[in-house]
Amino acid sequence: SRTVARDAQGVVTVGGIDVKTLAEEFGTPAYVLDEDDFRARCRAWREAFGDAADVFYAGKAFLCRAVVRWLTEEGLNLDVCSGGELATALAGGMPAERIALHGNNKSTAEIERAVEAGVGRIVLDSFQEIVRVAHIAERLGRRQRVQIRVTVGVEAHTHEFIATAHEDQKFGIALADGQAAEAVRRVLKLDSLELVGIHSHIGSQIFDMAGFEVAARRVVQLLTDVRDEHGVELPEIDLGGGLGIAYTSDDDPREPHEIAKALHDIVAHECAAAGLAVPRLSVEPGRAIAGPTTFTLYEVGTVKELSGLRTYVSVDGGMSDNIRTALYDAEYSVALVSRASDAPPMLSRVVGKHCESGDIVVRDAFLPADLAPGDLLAVPATGAYCRSMASNYNHALRPPVVAVSGGKARVIVRRETEDDLFLLDVG
Ligand code: LLP
C-alpha cells in the first residue's frame, strides 16, 4: 500500500510505524491495514464514478465496524450478503438506505430484518425469492425497493469458483430463454415490491474489461425490452464487483477511473441507441478496495532446506488466515521486512503450521538464504477474503486486524483467544 517504506536498517514501515514495533505490540501473525490507503481507495472509486453513480463496497471482502464507519464517512454504500454482515453494517452506523442485501438463499429472518431496517435494496436472486420477499414486505406493510440479479451468459476469465456470469450456477436468473423478462413481469405485478433495476455480477479478480462491457450491453438490452413491453424505464443498473488487483508483479490491474469510464461510456452509448434515459449506475468493488490495503505479518519459525529442491519456510499462521492459496491456487508475493539482507536468493515455499501439506501461503518465492527463525515476513495484498475467510482449523486463533494511520496503530479486530474458543464449546 501507499505508505509502505524501508528504513536505513532495512526495516519496513507502514503508516509511519515499523513492523518490528507492530510485531512486539500486537504479536504475529497479524493483518496490518493501512487506513489511509483504504480511505484513498474509497475516494478514488467515488470520484471515478461521480455523483451520477453509487459505489457499494462488497462487505464480504472484509468487514468490521471500523470499516463501516470509514465507508460511511467516505460516501460509499455497502453490499451485504448475510444476516451477520447486515448486523455489522447497522452496528457500524451505515444508514439502512445505503445498504443492499444479496444472497442466493436469504433466510426469512434475514429478509425480515433487512425490510424492517429499511435497506435501500434487496437483490432478488430467484423466482422463489420474488414471492418470499414480496410476502414479507406485504406482511410488514412496506414497499421494498428491489433489483433482479441476472446472469448475462459471459465467461469471465477467472477461477471457476469465482466466475458467476455463466448460466450453469446457483446465482441469479438467466437472461436466456426469457427467464429474466419473466422475473420482471412477476415483480411488476407485486405491490409490495418496487422494481428499481437490474443487477449483474460476472465474477471476481477480472482484468479484462470485455466481460463487463458485454454484461452492460445485455443489461441495457433487458431494460429496453422492459420499456417496450411494460412502458416502464427502470432507473438503475448495477454491474457488480470483480475488478482484479495485483497479487504479484505479473498482474496489471485497471484503475477505478478506467473501469468507470468504460462502463459509463458503454451504458451511455447503448442507452442512446435504444432511446433510453441513462439509468443510475452502481458497482460493488470489494477486493479492489480492501485487498491492497493490508499485508499479513508473520514470524518465521522452522526453516527446512531440502537440497536440490527448495527451502520450506514455516510461518506462525497459514491456511487458517489465508485459505486462498489452497482454495484457488492464488499467487502471492512475500518479503523479509525486519532487516536488510545481502544473502543470495533461495527458492522458498512459505508454509503454515497446519496439519496438512496443502497448507501453503506462497507457493514459490525467493527469500534471502540467511533467513532465520524470528525474522518477520510480510505477504502483501491480503486485505480481501483473508480475514473474512479465516478459520479456526487446528484451533488456530484468528489474527487481529491492526489499522495504522499517521504513526499510530490500533486494533480494529482483536486476536482470538483460547477463551473465545471455549465460549463456543459449551458441552
Ligand atoms: N458483488 C457481488 C454480488 C459479489 O458476489 C461479489 C463477490 C462482489 C460484488 C465483490 O467482488 P470483488 O470486487 O471483491 O471481486 N473468495 C473469493 C472471491 C469471492 C467473490 C464473491 N463475490 C476470493 O478470495 O477470491
TrEMBL record:
It is an enzyme of class 4 (lyase). Specifically catalyzes the decarboxylation of meso-diaminopimelate (meso-DAP) to L-lysine. Its cofactor is pyridoxal 5'-phosphate. Substrate binds at R287, R324, Y328, E356, Y385. It comes from the Bacteria. InterPro entries: Ala_racemase/Decarboxylase_C (IPR009006), DAP_deCOOHase_LysA (IPR002986), De-COase2_C (IPR022643), De-COase2_CS (IPR022657), De-COase2_N (IPR022644), De-COase2_pyr-phos_BS (IPR022653), Orn/DAP/Arg_de-COase (IPR000183), PLP-binding_barrel (IPR029066). It comes from Streptomyces macrosporus. Homodimer. Its EC number is 4.1.1.20. Belongs to the Orn/Lys/Arg decarboxylase class-II family. LysA subfamily. SUPFAM superfamilies: Alanine racemase C-terminal domain-like, PLP-binding barrel. This is Diaminopimelate decarboxylase.
